[in-house]
Write a structure and sequence with these properties.
The chain is an all-alpha fold and about 40 residues long. It has two helices and no strands. It is flat, with a radius of gyration of 10 Å.
């Protein structure tokens, strides 16, 4: 899977989390941001 594919997957997961719980989404975005920072 390409980097873009992985990024898209992460945002898709975050979107799914958003539909279930805002607090869970906050955690999801935090993890995604951390992953992006680590990648860079």
């Amino acid at each position: 899977m390409t980097a873009l594919g992985k990024l898209t997957l992460k945002f898709s997961i975050a979107a799914v989390m958003a539909s279930h719980s805002m607090s869970t989404t906050a955690l999801g975005w935090e993890l995604t941001s951390t992953a992006l920072i680590s990648a860079n």
